Amino acid sequence: MTLLTVDVGNSQTVLATFDGPRRRDCWRVTTAPKATADELRMLWRGLLRDTTVTGVAVCSAVPALLPALRQLLDSLEVPVVLIGPGVRTGVPLHVDNPREVGADRVVTALAAHEMFGRRPDGSGRPVVVVDFGTSTNVDAVGPDGQFLGGALAPGVEVSHDALASRAAQLRSVELTVPAHAIGKNTVAALQSGLVLGFAGLVDGLVGRIAAELVAQFGTAPVVVATGGLAPLMADNCRTISEREPDLTVHGLRLAFERQHSR
Asked: N or C: more exposed end of the chain, with fewer CB within 10 A?
């Protein structure tokens, strides 16, 4: 049995196949917000090749793409789960307005709890998830798997693009770790500000959120990095201890299993 999971983000879409809990293949492609159902079908078929899919789980942060996604999913002859309002994931949403929470954040919280929040003795611990995507999300998950909210900041690439487009004397640079925090030229200075600067932003937010979790639950959280830029950013953040770049697709697998185990 092969489950296809699809995490449609604002910039990239991550597709992964699972054989039970084991992830087999994983792909990252550029999100096309105006893609049709037929174009999505061709993309999926091209990646999957001869793989026989027995189920599909999808979440999308791109509202414009939802009609095409629904059209494609409705045409499939396998069990399908499209995460959204009204779909039970088993994640309690302890926020003011649960409908404001993106589906990707919900299933990411689910995976974070199951993969990092459960101790060997069965007890739970809080988790802080740092998702380095189009936005930089720092989310708090309670010891029972409850989503507690978090902080949202611009993503590293979004800030980079904004600087390049709005500052006449600045230009696009490769996002890489600079040798020193004090840049001796424009490129090095931008890399320092973007990579090391955002690492400092993350460490500051994680420190404050962790302190609130300790005050509430009496135990320090484990901090997990995920998202497309996690491999670049995680090593520069002093507060991050765990890494799983594709945490959301693991959450989609878990959500699918919960829907179809009833």
From this structure: C
Has residue 109 got a pLDDT over 90?
Answer: yes
Burial of 73 (C-beta count, 10 Å sphere; 0-12/13-18/19+): middle
- With a CB cutoff of 8 Å and minimum separation 6, the contacts of 119 are 125
Task: Tell me the residue length of the chain.
Answer: 262
Is 172 within 8 Å of 207 (Cβ atoms)? Answer: no
Residue 253 and residue 3: Cα distance in Å, rounded?
7
* Token pair of 227 as six digits: 């998202």
Catalytic option among 7, 104, 131, 246: 104
The closest of 231, 223, 222, 236 to 193, measured between CA atoms, is: 236
Strand order in the sheet with 147-154: 147-154, 135-141, 127-132, 222-226, 242-243
Residue 104: active-site member: yes
pLDDT tens sequence across 113-146: 999 999 888 889 999 999 999 899 999 999 999 9
Q: What is the mean pLDDT of the chain?
A: 93
* Contact (CB, 8 A) for 66 and 8: no
Cα 41 from Cα 59, distance rounded (Å): 16
Cα 226 from Cα 252, distance rounded (Å): 14
Q: What is the identity of the amino acid at 92?
A: P
| Distance between CA atoms of residues 43 and 46, nearest Å | 5
